[in-house]
UniProtKB/TrEMBL annotation:
InterPro entries found in the cross-reference section: Gramillin-biosynth_MTr (IPR053209), SET_dom (IPR001214), SET_dom_sf (IPR046341), TPR-like_helical_dom_sf (IPR011990), TPR_rpt (IPR019734)
Species the sequence originates in: Acacia crassicarpa (northern wattle)
Listed Gene3D superfamilies: SET domain, Tetratricopeptide repeat domain
Boundaries of every SET domain copy: 186-380
Protein name: SET domain-containing protein
Length: 551
């Protein structure tokens, strides 16, 4: 009896201390001092848990109930602070512990719902908000909660079906924040690639314009271009900030860290393991297996390895096979890391393009893709000569051995081809160069795809001729019609903004908007360039923008 009384007195003293600790933690939380508040709540939680264990035998059930309630609230508040620091996984653990104590704890359900939304687990988030809506406390807050429910429903639908519609945003001139999108993985898998290492492959036929995937950046950094280009110093600052952001993310999220470890450092790619695509679906936990198959808790990425991974896999928004929607300022450009797109290899006759919407990257088919075909996009401009492509591919550390490069390597050895290339570099009449190239192709019986490869390589000469009245007067009747050339090039390199633009300009020249058939053709081409992301009317807005901007 005396022992129990002593225990109770000590417990009372501890309770006083705990009260103080809790007030301090709450104050820090209100002041948004997240780190300090987490520390204070952690101390409180440890004491509270100890008290619950040790006071089972003497405390009355009310006292125990009070302790459990305090513990639940403290876990919920620590979860809030952790989620503000983007430590989502540990925050989620706190929510789950709090919900074991009280499965309908209003504050925790909302906090957990928001965390799950951040982790792209839309359906689980929806369940949290739905349960929270049933709580009487939701009465003053139901508008907000209903907003979350609707958002979760929309994102869950998008992530399951890939039916994306950006029409309103595009038609409203990209006003407001860029739309919140969902992670979506279409009919694709990662497999060994003949190009190099692993690649992304279609498991079903994908029509031109069809979505391949939507994914949010692990981290992005944007910078405003001073003149046309970013100064070397600004580039370094941007790169450093980007590395810091990725490092921070990796530190906070073990799952991301393990996924990043699956990416190539550019070394010995053919011996790399082929990860299961399911690992990239939100919410899938990784079996702890490292690249060389050794079990590990969480893979620690060493700084050097992380830098190599970023070097090989980071993408810039302004690349040739990319379009940026809603960019307010033409003068900025961004760099980012997106996990699944990092498995997409380069091709000089690509079949996919990417669209950037905020921090999201959308990959779509830029021509029809057959089941089993590898999905590729162009790291470098496919509308440039072999010589230029080779130069550019050095910066990527790749030596492209695709069919197009192989064919062009052989044909460019011919004296006549060298003359055309050197001639153009030295200011040769572009019309005469196009005429000569077309004649030589006839003479050498170059047909079909191979003819289109060369037309794509010398596209800048073709486009100058077709766009200049003077050249067309002189050469127009001796060279193939523009449309035939454009469509043969599209056939090999897929939709491209420059090809779309020249088609639209031609339509305008021939009487304003062109006929219905012309318009349908232009819309089809636009879907190959931008993907099926908007309805017809909004696509027309994109067509207008295409004519107004770019080359
Ligand atoms: C973004 S990763 C693509 C996925 C990579 N193959 C893998 O296994 O993880 C880029 C790297 O893939 C390789 N690569 C991509 N396209 C290539 C190509 N056309 N020819 C040779 N290597 C290529 C290069 O090593 C390049 O640094």
């Amino acid at each position: 009896m005396i022992v129990d009384e002593k225990k109770a007195t000590i417990a009372m003293a501890e309770e006083g201390y705990m009260q103080q600790l809790r007030s301090k933690a709450t104050e820090l939380l209100l002041r948004e001092e997240w780190k300090e508040s987490i520390e204070a709540y952690s101390n409180f939680i440890t004491l509270c848990e100890n008290q619950i264990v040790h006071s089972q035998d003497y405390a009355d059930s009310d006292q125990l109930q009070r302790l459990r309630k305090s513990l639940c609230l403290a876990l919920s508040n620590r979860a809030e602070a952790r989620s503000r620091l983007k430590e989502f996984h540990s925050a989620l653990e706190d929510c789950d512990l709090a919900l074991v104590i009280d499965e309908t704890h209003f504050k925790t359900l909302i906090c957990k719902g928001k965390i799950l939304l951040n982790l792209n687990m839309y359906y689980a988030a929806l369940e949290c908000f739905r349960v929270a809506l049933r709580d009487p406390q939701a009465n003053g807050n139901s508008e907000n909660l209903n907003g979350y429910v609707e958002k979760c429903k929309k994102l869950d639908f998008l992530s399951r079906t890939g039916s994306l519609d950006l029409s309103d945003w595009v038609s409203n001139g990209f006003r407001g924040k860029s739309p919140e999108l969902a992670e979506f993985i279409g009919s694709v898998e990662i497999m060994k690639s003949e190009i190099s290492g692993r690649g992304l492959f279609a498991t079903k036929n994908i029509d031109a314009g069809g979505l391949v995937l939507i994914t949010k950046a692990i981290a992005m950094e944007r910078s405003v271009l001073g003149g046309k280009d970013l100064s070397e110093e600004a580039q370094l600052v941007m790169w450093k900030n980007f590395i810091d952001k990725v490092t921070d993310f990796v530190r906070k999220c073990h799952r991301t860290s393990n996924l990043i470890c699956q990416l190539s450092t550019g070394e010995d790619e053919d011996s790399l393991e082929v990860p299961d695509i399911a690992l990239f679906k939100p919410g899938t936990e990784l079996k702890n297996k490292s690249k060389n198959n050794q079990p590990s808790e969480t893979e620690e990425i060493d700084k050097g390895e992380l830098l190599a991974i970023l070097d090989v896999n980071s993408l810039t928004e302004d690349s040739v096979s990319a379009n940026v929607l809603g960019k307010k300022n033409n003068e900025y450009y961004g760099v980012g890391l997106w996990l699944l797109p990092s498995f997409i290899n380069h091709s000089c006759y690509p079949n996919a393009r990417r669209l950037h919407v905020g921090d999201y990257l959308i990959v779509h088919a830029s021509k029809d893709i057959k089941a089993g075909e590898e999905i590729t996009f162009a790291y470098l401009d496919p509308l440039s000569t072999l010589h230029k492509r080779k130069e550019m591919s050095m910066t990527w550390g790749i030596q492209c051995r695709c069919k197009r490069c192989k064919f062009e390597s052989e044909i460019m050895c011919k004296q006549e081809m060298r003359e055309i290339e050197i001639g153009l570099e030295r200011g040769m009449d572009v019309g005469s160069a196009v005429y000569k190239l077309e004649e030589e192709m006839k003479r050498w019986k170059v047909r079909g795809k191979e003819k289109a490869y060369l037309r794509a390589s010398f596209w800048s000469a073709y486009s100058e001729v077709y766009r200049t009245e003077r050249f067309m007067k002189r050469w127009g009747r001796r060279i193939p019609a523009m449309e035939a050339v454009v469509y043969s090039v599209i056939d090999v390199i897929g939709g491209d903004e420059r090809l779309l633009k020249i088609q639209l300009e031609e339509m305008k020249k021939n009487g304003g908007g062109g006929g219905l058939v012309e318009m349908e053709k232009a819309l089809k081409l636009a879907r190959e360039v931008y993907g099926k992301v908007v309805k017809k009317q909004a696509m027309r807005t994109l067509l207008e923008l295409c004519v107004a901007t770019g080359e």
